[in-house]
Specification:
By secondary structure, this protein is mainly alpha-helical. 61% of the residues lie in helices and 7% in strands. Helix 1 packs across helix 4.
Length: 122
């Protein structure tokens, strides 16, 4: 997987966000054993130290854990994963709202745009 790490956000944070998305969306399942840091670094096309930093931060957040002799795993704490998912949804919604405000939309217009688009998509 080649990534485009061209934004001003530090690469390890971009990796954290990508890994977090895989966890909260279920692509990486609760309790799943992860590949080694080195393998993930190759997959994400980054230095192993950068990958290690991202994974360590996710451990600190409780979304990953390490078993000393067998490797790193996705948390089995479904409540913690749900909370991370809710926080990501809140952040994306706030970003969308702020962008729409910059475009000149009022709150009720934003709701209309979202509702209309969802109707079209479904």
């Amino acid at each position: 997987m080649a990534n485009d790490f061209s934004s001003n956000i530090p690469i390890y944070i971009q990796i954290m966000n990508e890994v977090k998305l895989k966890i909260v969306s279920g692509v990486w399942e609760s309790g799943q054993r992860l590949q080694s840091v080195r393998e993930l670094a190759v997959e994400f096309s980054v230095n192993p130290n950068t990958m290690q930093k991202a994974l360590s931060e996710l451990e600190r957040e409780g979304l990953l854990y390490t078993e000393r002799t067998s490797g790193r795993y996705v948390s089995q704490d479904k409540e913690k994963i749900k909370k991370a998912r809710d926080e990501m949804a809140k952040e994306y919604t706030e970003n969308y709202y702020n962008l729409m405000k910059k475009l000149g939309y009022a709150k009720d217009e934003i709701v209309y745009v979202v509702t209309s688009r969802l109707t079209e998509i479904e």
